[in-house]
Each structure stands twice: as C-alpha cells, then as structure tokens.
Amino acid sequence: MSKQNLEICVIDDETVVCKRLQQALTKAGYTVETFTDSRKAIKRLDEKHFDIIVTDIRMDNIDGMEVLSHIRQQERNTKVILITGYATIEIAREAQVKGAYDFISKPFKPNELQQVIERAAKELVPHEGK
Amino acid sequence: MQIICISRGSQSRGEEFAEKLAAKLGYECISREQLIEEAIRQKIPIGKLETAIIKPHIFSEELALELEHYKALVTSILCEKALKHSIVYHGRTGHLLLQGVEHVFKIRVESDMTYRIPYVMKQLNISEKKARRYIEQIEEDRRKWVRQFYHIEWDVFTLYDLVLNLTHMNVDNAATAVCQMAQLPEFQATPASISKLKDLYLASRARLLLATHPKSRHKHIQVKATNGVVHLTYLSQEVRECSMLNELLKGLEDAREIICTKAESTILWIQESFDIDDDTYKKVLSLARTWNAAIELIKVVPCEDETLTGENQTREPENTNSNWQDEHNTDDEESDAQFPKDITRLYEKLILDGKAGGERVAPCTLKSLLNTIDRSSNYRLIILDKIFITKSEAIQKRLCQEWSNVLSDSLKVPVITLEELISKYHFGPRQAVRLTVFALLTAVIVFLLFHYEDIILSFLAKDGTSWRILEAIAIALFVPLFASLYGTVTGLFLKLIKLD
Amino acid sequence: MEDIFIHLTTADSLQVILIGFIGGVLSGFIGSGGAFFMTPGMMNIGVQGVIAVGSNITHKFGKALIGSRKHGEMGHVDKKLGIFMLITSLVGIWLAVLVMSHLFGIKSSHGDKGAAANLYISLIFVVVLFLVSVSMLRDIIRKRTTDDTGPSKSISEYLTRLNLCPMIYFPVADVKISLWILMIVGLATGYLAGTIGVGGFIGVPAMIYVFGVPTAVATGTELFLAMFMGAFGAINYALKGFVDIRLVALLYLGSLLGIYIGAYGTKVVREKTIRLVTGLIILLCVISRAIAVPIYLDQLNIVHWIGPSQYELYNSISKGLLYTSGISGVLIILTSVIKAYIKRRRVQASFVTKT
Questions:
Q1: In chain C, positions 190-249, which contact chain B (CB-CB < 8 Å)?
Q2: Contact B126 A98 (CB under 8 A)
Q3: CA-based nearest distance C181→chain B, Å
Q4: Chain A nearest C-alpha distance from B247 (Å)
Q5: Yes or no: domain B3-212 corresponds to CATH 3.30.930.10
Q6: What is the pLDDT at residue B444?
Q7: H, E, C per residue of chain A
C-alpha cells in the first residue's frame, strides 16, 4: 500500500497539535484529516474508512480510549495509535488489551510518530475496494 | 508522626484499604496518582518514564535525569507531609522512596486472581482471557519499573513488614486489624529516624533545585545529605564550576553546609561486605586521590540459592507476537532492600573524605549487578573482591574471576581484586625495595654494555650462520629482559611521583 | 664489517636517550610507535639506516611486550583477522629485510656501504609518512565543517561487491574480506613495518577503510600484530647482524619513561589538539628526512645537487628541524601534563561552603 493511499485521521483537542501533525504527515505524503472535537470525529469515522487513527487519550466529550473501543466494536481493519502526556503503565496496557496498535507519550517528535505509522502501514491488510 | 506505606498489587483493593486505614487513624491519605498529577504539573514527562518500561529501547540518558527529578519530587512531597503529620501513602514503591527511614510501616496488599480477573473484566469491559493478560502484564511492568528504577526485586516479601491478602477479607476489618498493629513501638518515629527523614527531605529539595534550574538541569549530580550537610558529587566534565552549584543551592533551607566533590572519573568498588577499619579503605582512597576519582560503592547482597550465582544466566525469552515489547522474567530473586549498615558507614566516611561517588545495593546475581551499574558513569577501574564470602575459597576465586571477566567485557573497564590493587597501584616499602633493586640492575646492565662495548659489538658483527643464530637468540633474550626490568623501574617511579 | 656500528660518545649516547624519550612521549601520546621520530633521529647522529631500523624494530618488540602485559586491553582483537594479517605481514617483513640487506651491500662512490639503503629508507619514509600526515591534517580540517559520520565505507563496500574469491568471514569484526586483498594489505603492512618500522600507520587505516573493520577492532588487532611483527622483525634483523644492542638499551632508557607521560597527556589534551600536534610533527619529520636525501643521492653518484662539503650543513638542517619538531611537540605535551598535575593537586581538597 503506497503512502498516497493511506488515509489518516488525527484527533486531538489541542489545535496546535492537530495543525503540526497535519503538516508533518501531509508532507510525508499521507492523506490526513484532523478533528479537535472527538464527537465530530466519531461521526466522520462512521461515514468513512480510515487506515490509521491517531488520537489523544485525554479529551473532553469522548476520550481516546472510547474512540478505540468504538473502532474495535466494528471490527474494522484500522490501526489506532494513542498519544498522551499522562501515560501510565496501566493506561498503556489497557489500550493494548483493547486493541490499540501502539502508544506514544508526549512530548514526541513528528518522525517518532511517522515511524510508528510506517510500521502500522506495513501490517495493514489492503482494504477492499482499493 | 507515623508513615505507613502501602504497596498495592494491581486491582487488589489496595486503594480502598489505604483510604479506610487513613480514615480510621485520622491520617492524611496520599496516593501515587496525586503525586503523578503534581509531577505532570511540574512538567516531568511521566508518560515517557512509564512507557520506557514497556518500550525499553527508548530509555535515554535524558530520561534518566528526568527519573532523578521525578524521584526527588515525590520524595520531597512525601517527606514534607510526613514531617508535618502522620500519613498513609499508597502506590507502587513508597517505601523505596523513603529508604533508610526506619519507622516506616511497610504493607503489601495482594488479592487472588479469582478476585481480580472478574473485577478487571467488569471495569474495562473485556474478556476473561484479556483481563488475565492485562493483570499479568501490569504486574510484570511494575516489577520491571521497580527493578529498573530502584534496583530491587519488587515482589519479595521480606521487603515488607506485613503482607495482606484481601481475597477473603473484608477491607474494613483488615484496616481495623492493621490499626492495632500500627501502634507497635517499631513503627513509631525516633529521633534518629526523624533526622534521616529530614536528610532525605533536604537532599530531595537540593536535587529538585538542581533539576529545575536551566544551568544544572542536564547535569549528572549525585546528591546526598547527612545530618544537614548536603553533599554533591559530579564528574569534572559535567560541571566546571563548583561555585555555580553553591549559588544555585543558596536558598536551600536547613542546609548546614554544602560539600562538593569534583571527580575526573569513578572507581567502582564492589564487595559483599565493607569493613570500615580495614586498611584497604585507605589504599583505595589514596588511589582515588591520585586519580582525582570518586569512589562508588556497590554492596552485593548474598543469596542462598546456588542456582543464582551467575553461571546459568539464561536470556529472557522475548515475546514477539506484538509490537509492544514484552519481556517475561521468571527469576524469583531474593534480596534485602534495606541499606545495610556497613556500606552506609563507609559511605559516610567517604563523604567526609570528599570522595563519595554513590552507593548502591544489588542482589547477588550477575544480571542484577549489571543492571545496577550506571553505564553513563566514567568508570576508570572496578574493584571486585569479597563476594560469595560464605563459600569456599576456591569457589570464591572462580566466581570472582567469572564475574570480573563479564564485567570487564561488558563495561570495557579493567576489573581487579584488592590484592592486585595494592600490588599495582600502591607504593609501599615493598615497591620501594623493588624500585631500588631493579634500578640498580638496569644501571649495572647499561654499565656492562658500555664497558664491554668492543667485545659485544664484535660478537654482534661476527659472520657465519651459527654465530648469527646465536646473536639473534642473545638479542631475543636480552631485549624483553631489559625492557621489563626497566619498564618496572619507570612504572614504579611514576607511581612514586603519583603520575600514573 | 665492524664499521657498521658507529662509535658512541657520551654526547651521542645522551642524544639517543633524548631521541628515545621524545619518541616515547610521542608514541604514548599518539598511541602508535614512535619510529617515525626515532629512525630519522638516529640516522642524523650518523647511525646507518639499516641499523637504525633494525634497532628500532627490536626496541618496538620489547615495548609492545610490556605494553600488552600492562593493559591486557586486547578485548577487541579479531584473532582470526589478526592471524591472517600476521602471516602475510611476516612475509612482508622478511621481504623487507631481504631487500634491505641487499641494498646495504651496494657500495657508494666513496666506497662507503649503506648509502643506498639510507636513500631507500629515507625515500619510503618521506613518501609514506607524507601521505599519512596529510591525510591526518585533512581529516582535522574536514571534521570541523561536517558532522562525524564515522569512517567512509565506500572502498570496503566496493571491494566486497567485487567478491574476489575466496572470501573469508571474520566474526568479531563482522566483515567479509577477499583473501587476495587481505594478502596485499598484510604484505604492505609488514613490508613497511620492516622497512621503516611504522606498520601501525598503514595497518590501522587499511583495516578501517579497506576492510571496513570497526575502529576499536582495528586498533586492538594492530596491538596484537605489533608484538609478533616486532619480534619477527627483530629476529630477522638480528640474523643479518643489523641490531645494535647499545642503541636499543639507550632508546629504552628514554622511551619507557616518555611513553607514560605521553599516555598521560592524552587524558589532559583535547582530542583535536592531539591530532593536530601529531599531524604537524610527522610532517616536520618528513621534511627533515627529505632534506637529507640529497646527501645520499650525491654519495651514490645519482644526482650531484650538493658536494661532500655541504653534507655537514644539510645534515645539521635536517637534524635541527627534526629536533625542533620533536622537542616542541614534547614541550606542548609536557606543559599540558605539568599544568594538569599541578591543578590536580590544587582541586584535590573538596570545596566547602558554609551557608
């Protein structure tokens, strides 16, 4: 699967983070959509398939863990990468049992995320209809 | 003033128990989560520290400094509160933060899997299989956290005064019972333990000051306080000016004195027991003075189990079924978490002599010893002696040799025993005699060489195969002899003027 | 044949000790043999080139012997690579000694022996060490501008691609090297070690750039090699009668003391300064030797740039330059060492402040 075909959804309630990730990932050749409101994101996720979701854990409304559960309930071929500044072992392991692909703790460098995304992309089974 | 530290097993109702106990005793209840919140406010990247356990490859030198910062912050908060009133703390490692404070009542709360699995299933809404895996992983991670950050095995029950299994016990009843136990004289503060607590508080505040100031933020500086005297040790390449540190610590309350030790390198001294009156201490110290090195002590805690003595270390199997790095360690090592008296006494002496470079305790397996050693330190020499003292001399020697090979291989630093230290680096009367004798011998050889110059030269210039072979043999014998003779002289001479 | 050993006056003896000391300091400082200074130094005193080289190799053998015993720092040796290099380099040394003793036999215009050998040694010395010093100095200049990305692998990768059979795998260094290339490098190292006594200058960079061996393994393996090469060279030269044992002893008197001071110097002098000083000293040694070349050319009736009357002048210029470079190098190192020594005494006491 080439980079251009990869659709990434970024959810973070901080606009700055969204912007920065949008820039970095678009530059790396991915198709990126960002959301600062997790409720809107969930709606969009129901409409459209994303290959990779990058989401913050601590958010108002719906938190990252719920986004993860939501995706996993639908048994979709989507990799979820969680980011947070408040990670503890317990949260990280919870994310893992709930089926997150990986876990990145803030502050991180964009290429740290890119590496994880590249790794996830390799493991993605090509999506039907593509 | 009482301090009760509760180490919680995951999902074992430790939190509930701690809160009940605090309420019954009328103490303040502090949780690890509160401390974490505070650490996050202070901009310590807790997430990085925690995930470093899960993804070990990301643990960097910078993170090691953050860990120091975190430990100092947590210690200072706990000490501050404990000096004001009685507290109950619950978390992973409270008792390890307050090491050396004798009146801490250390409790471990556990529950059976039969209780924990259904609880986790309900909480996280996951299947039984996943819940079990979740609990096992967290246990493993916490064990690693404690091992990596405190160099101690976590689930060793000798670390605690009391281990509670809450599977079949009502939390309230358990708390009532423990209230009674808390009244025991062993868990009451003494002047000595209070002064230890004050020292910990002082050292942690000093550490915090250093960790938060941009000038000293990225420096490896060891901080220790004894009886109100703050002692800082650092390598000379880390900090150029001691006055800068003094300036930074000016505002530190209750500090009677600040002593800085600047070292160019570190001598690591590993033994099972340290004897303060021993003559060897003076010799190691004098070497440290010559090199301007700090001395770091590691006490290896003896263990009973024969199988853990280093020869059958197996690599930990790596779990490769996911990208999350898991390591399962099946060792069940026993260790003594308390700082034993001998090392502490020696260390205090080292501080007074201005050569203190740190003290640690390691369980007696080679692996944990290697984990304990700080690889970022600039070690110049490792002294390894007096390990496995309970075993026969032959075994001692063999194991010592084995360990020293592994250590020198993995750290690329020469490893020697005390005996070798004395013969190699110490200049005593024996060395003086040797120096004189060897110097005389060298002088005699040089004199003879020039006195019988003509004879020797004509011998060397003689033609003919058999003569030539004879000459070659003579030279091949003479050269190493002369070189080693005179080499010893120069070596000893430089040792004498302390330029080695 | 007794005239091949010169008469040593007391002044000459002291000079040899001084040469040994300077060579020792430099070799301790650089971590390689001090032959580049000691060989020309002895030749300037009037020692036959062959004798200078032979005595030097003998001296190096004993030094390597105690050096290895002292440090035991051979953790990085690739034994397999070491043995392969050793066998070929021994052949190289043997060839070098053969050529040398043949050249020594050629009589000059004045009926003197050894001029041809002197010329030959000097030329090889000038060419090889010129290349070494220039590449060292270029390295320093380049390091200043770009990041250190480790030694270039282009040559070694190219050679691996060529895949000249048979390829041999070396486990410690983790490289595959063609036997032929290995033989060429080993031969060259041994030949140069045997001719001018500086094998390390060629062996180490060759292992790093041509074989692609990690730097630590290259230096470790070189240490291992130096001992055997020294021993073999010493015995070979001794068999031809070219070792002056008095010179060897005098060299030791200076060098063994110097080597410690030089080694101490590396701890107190910055890495870049070390390289700069080394590069410059070697370059000056090269120029000094080059100045002596016309003398030998004249003696051999090849080119008459200068007559016998000017021998003295050229020799003193060469000698002066050599001593200037050596002594100033040693002074730089010594001042650093002494400064550090005094400073250490002063900081020794802990800094105590009352608050």
A1: 231, 234-235, 238-241, 243-246, 248-249
A2: yes
A3: 31
A4: 31
A5: no
A6: 92
A7: CCHHHCEEEEECCCHHHHHHHHHHHHHCCCEEEEECCHHHHHHHHHHCCCCEEEEECCCCCCCHHHHHHHHHHCCCCCEEEEEECCCCHHHHHHHHHCCCCEEEECCCCHHHHHHHHHHHHHHCCCCCCC
**Which CATH code of 1.20.1740.10, 3.30.420.40, 3.40.50.2300, 3.40.1190.20 fits the domain covering A3-123?**
3.40.50.2300
pLDDT digits (tens, 9 = 90+) for B408-463: 777 777 788 887 777 777 777 888 888 899 999 999 998 888 888 888 888 877 77
For testing contact with chain C, the best of B479, B488, B489, B498 (most C CBs within 10 A) = B479
Helix (H, G, I), strand (E, B) or coil at C140: helix
Domain B266-310+319-425: assigned CATH number? 3.40.50
- Return all residues near B334 (Cβ < 8 A) that are at least 6 apart: B153, B156, B158, B303, B304, B305, B363
Q: How do residues B23-63 score in pLDDT, each as one tens digit? A: 999 999 999 989 988 988 888 888 888 877 777 655 566 77
Domain range annotation of chain B: 3-212, 218-263, 266-310+319-425, 429-496
Residue B326: band (very low, low, confident or very high) from pLDDT cuts 50, 70, 90: very low
Asked if residue B62 lies in contact with residue B68, where contact means CB atoms within 8 angstroms, the answer is no
Phi, psi of B103 (to 5 degrees): -85, 5
**Contact state of B292 with C261 under an 8 Å Cβ cutoff:** no
Which residues lie closer than 8 Å to B490 by C-beta, 6 or more apart? C256, C257, C260
| Residues 6+ away with beta carbon under 8 Å from B71 | B97, B149, B204, B207
Domain segments of chain A as ranges: 3-123
Residues of B with CB below 8 A from C346's CB? Answer: none
pLDDT tens-place string over residues C36-78: 888 888 888 888 888 888 888 888 887 777 665 544 444 566 7
Q: How far is CA B85 from CA B81, B178, C118, in A?
A: 6, 19, 89
How close is the nearest chain B Cα to the Cα of C246, in Å? 7
Closest CA to C200 of C100, C128, C99, C251: C128
> For residue C354, is it within any domain?
no
CB B343 within 8 A of CB B361: yes
Contacts of B137 in chain A (CB under 8 A): 93, 96
A73, two tokens: 């309930």
Contact indicator for B318, B256 with CB cutoff of 8 Å: no
Spatial CA neighbour of C6 closest among C50, C54, C48: C48
- CB of B53 within 8 A of CB of B137? no
Name residue, tokens 């299989």.
B129
> Is B486 in Cβ contact with C65 (below 8 Å)?
no
Residue at C20 is within a domain = yes
* Residue A89 φ then ψ, to 5°: -55, -40
Residue B18 pLDDT grade (very low, low, confident, very high; cuts 50, 70, 90): very high
Q: Which residues of C touch B249 (CB under 8 A)?
A: 355
Judged by a CB distance cut-off of 8 A, whether residue A124 touches chain B is no
Nearest to B475 among C65, C243, C347 (CB): C243
A52: which 2 tokens? Answer: 């990779």
* Binding-face residues of B in 2-41 toward A, CB within 8 A: 10, 36, 40
Q: For chain C, which residues score pLDDT lower than 50?
A: 1-2, 70-74, 146-149, 346-355
**Min Cα separation B58/chain A (Å):** 11
Dihedral sign, Cα of residue A70, residue A73, residue A79, residue A81: positive
Asked if the model's pLDDT at residue B378 lies above 80, the reply is no
Closest residue to C249, CB basis, from B249, B446, B493: B446
Does some domain include residue C353? Answer: no
B496 CA to centre of own chain? 33
Count structural domains, chain C: 1
Q: Is B45 left (phi over 0), alpha (psi -120 to 50) or beta?
A: beta
